[in-house]
Amino acid sequence: MRCQKKVVLTSYIIGDNPENIVNIFQQFQMTKNDKWENSDVIMDNDIATSEKRISDTTLDLTENLRHRSGSLIYPPRETFSMKEWMKYHARKTCSTKTLKKRVPIFGYLPNYTWETALSDFLAGLTVGLTIIPQAIAYSSVAGLPAQIGLYSSIVGPFVYAIFGSSKDSPIGPTAIEGLLVRENKHELGVAGAILLCFLSGCVELAMGILHLGFLIDFISGPVAVAFTSAAAIIVATTQVKDLLGLDHPGDNFLLVWKQIYEHITEISGPDCAMGFLAIICLVILKKLKDSKYLQQGSEENSTFHRILNGACWFLATSRNLLVVVISASVAYAFESQGTSPFRLTGFVKPGLPSVSLPPFSTEVNGKSYTFFDMASTLGSAIIIVPILSILQNYAIAKVYSEGRSIDSTQEMLALGFCNIASSFVSSMPVSGALSRGAVNHASGVRTTFGGVYTAIVVILSLKFLTPWFYYIPKAALASVIIVAVAFMIELHVLGPIWKTKKIDLIPASATFFGCLFTRLEIGIGIGIAINLAFLLYATARPSINIEKSKTNVGHDYLLITPDRSVLFPSVEFVRNVITKASIKKGLSAVPVVIDAKHIQAADYTAAKGMKLLISDFANRNQPIVFMNLKKSVITTFKGVNPESFVYCQTFDELNECIDAFATKTISLDVDLMNDQSLTKYSTKL
């Protein structure tokens, strides 16, 4: 039953484009003259209610919807046959627009100029000088040979240049992925890391194809910050032993500090001195480009300041390489004198990696592992690594998007292709790194092709510089990692979280300490679980606003407004609140109005609950009216056949309805379930 008020329908709007406004009455006259045969049209109740239900001749807007302004408009599935629907999607998938969207290189390459190429070359060269020492260092974090990190920096940038959509995202190994590899490869070694790279790519590709980017939204900001900060502390902790010249394996946060305490007397003085001096130099160089003095200038010395700023920017950007080169030179000088005061990186396999399939089986210490054995050993890392890779890369793309929308699906597809292709050259899992992304952006990169130049720099280093990598002190590499991850510890967000929503500190704290004292995947799993529990509680216990109102003529009614959809977890709660409020405040006589403007959806359990609620009100002869119901919710409620389901859409209709209740007479509009006709009648309550 519906309270009715006459409203003149002037137009029917399709979508949100003003050009797609179709005048219903003009179309109606045209269809009468042309005698269209089709007789099914569903008009949106939320737009307007027609003055008269058209039952003898109705409109078919199918042809009108197919083509507007020369372009294909998305067709409603219910008005098209499966063949037409599939044809539409096939045309959409095979269009030039889709090709440029899914293979972005076709979008920018035709307009690729020498100026753009120069900008990309300079940015790629700068990132290349940054990634070489980082790649070697992140191999150490992952517990892998040094060359694996360099192999991981070759194929990914080439593939991302084709499929990537964020020009500032430099693909390669990262500290977090290195730590995840270290924690999950177990006894599988290099073979486990390579297989994890391949499987991560497959998961990322599948998530992109299935449009599962929404899963990343379940990792809230506080949880992501806590995870990143905990991971940064763990990565730094694993490097402290190299910084102090100790040689005792340990991956666990507490275990590493326990071993450091137990072997404190074995600290190497030269390594310690080298490491701390390197940290001081890295911090000074990082802060150099932010010097207020260097940013000042006048007309007389502006040229001098531009040159000085450029030099300082270059020193700050290439600081990792400078520190590594200088420390390696010092170590080489000592080695040439016949002394070895530092623990060195050692032999790095020269040359480019061979192209081969990822290892789907391996043998470790005489024990054979099949593919399923290896996958079982890697465990949850097969899911956690790709999700966190996507999260890192999406974060970089969002930071430097400059207001542009980010296509998360395309980023997942690009990362999937990058990891799958990289696994064929013995790579560990790869993603974008925020530190290198900052360098890339500051260097003025124009397109994703900048990664190609970065990969070329790495290839040249593998071809000609590997003999020199032998002399890089481990303490220098440890200092590079510690300084890089130190800026990932985001303690500054605690204040804003406390000021905005203190309860967010609960999942953040659980994630931080869970990652720190157990494992990364367990920690972030705990944080996500707590967030989901909060969401489920909010769903099961919606806020309900209750207030007394009056109609235009002064009749009282109780207005109850739930603040979200009513689904099965919240049905009993909402029903009890409404019943108690109606008895206490309405004194079982005043009509109760449920304003459903926030209810976007309902399920079978909700419909059954509302049916019982309507029956409760009917038993005590207290009127109940629903207002602002969505069409889909009306259909759901009608599906359980409630006794007397009264609803209206506007306050004018509501006022008439409440006034009619007050005078014990109401005009009702019964919409038959088959939607074929309307019957208007009056009934005594």
From TrEMBL:
CDD domains linked to this entry: STAS_SulP_like_sulfate_transporter (cd07042)
One Gene Ontology MF term: secondary active sulfate transmembrane transporter activity
SLC26A/SulP transporter domain span: 119-506
Membrane-spanning ranges: 188-207, 214-236, 267-285, 306-334, 369-391, 412-430, 450-470, 477-498, 510-538
InterPro entries reported in the protein's UniProt record: S04_transporter_CS (IPR018045), SLC26A/SulP_dom (IPR011547), SLC26A/SulP_fam (IPR001902), STAS_dom_sf (IPR036513)
A GO CC term attached to the entry: membrane
Membrane-related topology note: Multi-pass membrane protein
Major localization class: membrane
Subcellular location: Membrane
Keywords of the record: Membrane, Transmembrane, Transmembrane helix
Keyword Signal: no
PROSITE patterns: SLC26A
Protein name (record): SLC26A/SulP transporter domain-containing protein
